[in-house]
Structure prediction request, 494 residues.
Amino acid sequence: MARFGMVIDTKKCVGCQDCVIACKTENDVPDGCSRDWIVTETNGKFPNLNMEIRTERCNHCDNPPCVSCCPTGASHVHDVGNVVLVTHEKCIGCKACHEACPYDARFVNPAGYADKCTFCIHRTEKGEETACQAVCPTHCIYFGDLDDPNSEVSILLNSRKNHKLIPEAGTKPRIFYLT
Amino acid sequence: MLEITTTRNNLFIDPTVTVWGWEIPIYLFLGGMVAGMMIIAGYFILKRRDKEENCSCHYLPWISIALLSLGMFALFLDLSHKLYVWRLYTTFQITSPMSWGAWILLLVYPALIANVLISPPKFLTDKVPFAKTLSGKIKEHPFLIKNIGVMNMVFGGMLGIYTGVLLSTLGARPLWNTSILWVLFVVSGLSTAAAFVHMIARDKYERELLAKADNGFLIMELVVLIMMIVGLLTSTQAHIDAAYLILNGPYAATFWVFVVLMGIVIPLIIQLLAVNHKIKHTPIAPILVIVGGLILRFVIVQAGQYSHWFNVHFK
Prediction:
């Protein structure tokens, strides 16, 4: 079974927000809400500064606390790609999953249910790219099966230095940032 | 320097998570206090104090039902997908303390109703005469009465424990992520319940007993609070930062003044003097304990949401 993951090349990302707009358009994300976003992190002491620009979203963790805390089973791991999804009709809007996520990746959809990135499952289960990946002008977003040693994402992770976000939270995130 | 900017601005998520408002602390407080009241009422019944006309176990069960229902209504108000609330009872999710809680509440209500039926209040027997018949049948079996007492103590304990476990399993919020939190909530629930019963009890023996018990609970609460803070301060940077939120951060004034000083230390001094017959019992100490217990839940819930693993990176 595939285990979908994402690799983002921070050396290529320019923070143009095309991915943010593409996601909102593709997934009909309500105004004022974002399933993905841009983070700019500046480190160091002037003039020796180091900047990392990255696009962030739900990390579709291997050990997802949002799934284990859900009282109704609305938050679940999907059969295809082990993607973490929310069944809207099962969600009661208790917001435990928001509190459980160390990345604050979820938000309350104005319709009431918990909402977040789906890795564009309606596209990726057909073998298509995610919307954010499809529009990225610098091609900094890579998507694929982390369990396949020959996939582009596996090859990149084996050949380039990379980091995850808040690995100390123990959620085993599946989004990796090339540095 | 380390500067982080983000384009995300999701409602109730940014800049800090505030998805749980006043409803959750109110529910946790009322749930904890009802848990304590069930344990106290259960203990009195186990000791067969229900034979005493003035025993508080005659009216604690229906007060508990009213307070718990109020708390559950607050919880319902917090839901953002209210029409789907029934989904809670279509499944049991073993890894979700909220799912345990939903099912524990289904055990708590029958236990409380059984307790009400031991000596049903007049307003109930007037409207439902069958309650009096049922009460008569229960009274014919002392063994059954004792079991109802035990059932109330056990399910009350489960209710109190779950309110703490609910928060402590949410590892993304370092302030909550301490396994001693349930002990704090159970002890606080017992102290607020003892204070409440002390305030409304008609029997002098019960008032005296509960004032003494409350002193014990308050001392335990203080010890557990200290242990919780020691645990956080000796853990990861995220947990240390979380502890400082209540020690000298934005929630410190509320925590020290309303929770520690007015909610524990001052009522403890007043009640120690009262049980040693230096001063008379007044409702001041119990009211301070109850308000302190309520504010404790608010501080823990709000500061917990403020605490974050990301704060580590801002250092």
